[in-house]
């Protein structure tokens, strides 16, 4: 279980402090799929990066399975069981897809097992396993490999920052299946997805809405989703993805 | 008659580093240790002889020799030793041969140790040569480990040469000069990997002349400069015919390293298609963060990124 207590995050902009996140308290319970949505610039990605340790909150504390992890590094949090899929995945010259998956599993992995993760994200494993994670890969391919690394890491809490961004419509169908399958096998873990996509919101156990850095709505899918339909917080795939 | 010298443990370790040799290699070989031959073997198709007048070898490969290899590693463990060695390779037509060279210096003394290997390759028509050269230095003496390799390649029509040059560790000072002349339809591929640390200095220059129609060259260097080290990479491709040339220098700079990249193209024919690329940059923060989210420490992430880059 992850618990955020009174998290705020300011940045300095033109000599003035700008508040990106304002006093957010939130619980991500075990064995739940939570989707955080809301308008662009509302602080969703920042919140995800704060949980992964990439950004340090200006104030507030974070507890993971009862342990205060506010001061813990990215590495320490990863070892405790937090996984993070970047919105804009990074490219590496020379590092192969199988290297990245092997690093994600924290040790050795057979090529067959590494291929399995690629198949889960709709990539033909044979064509990709030896590829370098460099600029020869398209944005969509890179994104799917990014998600495969997080699947391979098998975290207690997996965070996906706008997994649909940069993915084509066909791949998006696969992506939904990936999350549906993760939801089925959620025992002992939880999932946090940052997304605007109605179809992703539809598979959520709980939806959290952030606007202007504040938590404005939180509840079950049944409670929250009707309020969002037709807004920028819940777009249909054909409106947004392409 | 070649005098045989027994190798000690340090020399054996150097051999493993530069030539992946754990025992006497198969095929033709010459192992040079502290300026003496520590073993030599010719085969029916590959003849190795000592040069007259100067230090070095003549390696003659008969036309049509296929799937054979030549190993000519050099190890030096005596501080203060300086040598210039001339090795000439005469490769007949229609061959397919792998040549493994390389030099390892272990210098625990106070005097500089230096090996300057001048390699000339005369590659026959339609032959395919794979050349691997690794340089390695070790030892904690104040004497420098210096390697100045000179490589000249002369390629006949339709021949292919693939060169892999690696210097990852422990060489204090190196000036590498490589020149190549290619006739019609010849192909040259060079992959250089270089890492410098401490106060090391490495200079690598290439001049590749594409003299015949359809000649192609691809010269790619990847390097990492750490600590206070300095690197200069110069690659010039000269197109004298309808040909294709590409050179690329891609470097990671760290700490207080300095890198000078000077790619150059010279086209003397309207159908010469030449391209150069050069990039120098530090490791991207996002790359380190990504690997940290997989559980690696910052230092481990950096190592993985460099290992991948130089792979």
Overall description:
The complex is a heterodimer of chains A (242) and B (311). Chain A has one domain: 3-Layer(aba) Sandwich (Rossmann fold). In chain A, 36% of the residues lie in helices and 27% in strands. Chain A contains 10 helices and 10 strands. In chain A, strand 9 (206-211) and strand 10 form a beta hairpin. Chain A is globular, with a radius of gyration of 18 Å. Chain B has one domain. In chain B, the strands form 2 sheets. In chain B, strands 1, 2, 5, 6, 8, 10, 13, 15, 17, 19 and 21 form an 11-stranded mixed sheet that branches. In chain B, strands 3, 4, 7, 9, 11, 12, 14, 16, 18 and 20 form a 10-stranded mixed sheet that branches. The mean pLDDT of chain B is 91. The longest helix of chain B has 12 residues, at 298-309. Chain B is mostly beta strands and 311 residues long. Chain B starts with 8 loop residues before the first helix and ends with a helix. At the A-B interface, helix 2, strand 6 and helix 3 of A face helix 2 and helix 3 of B.
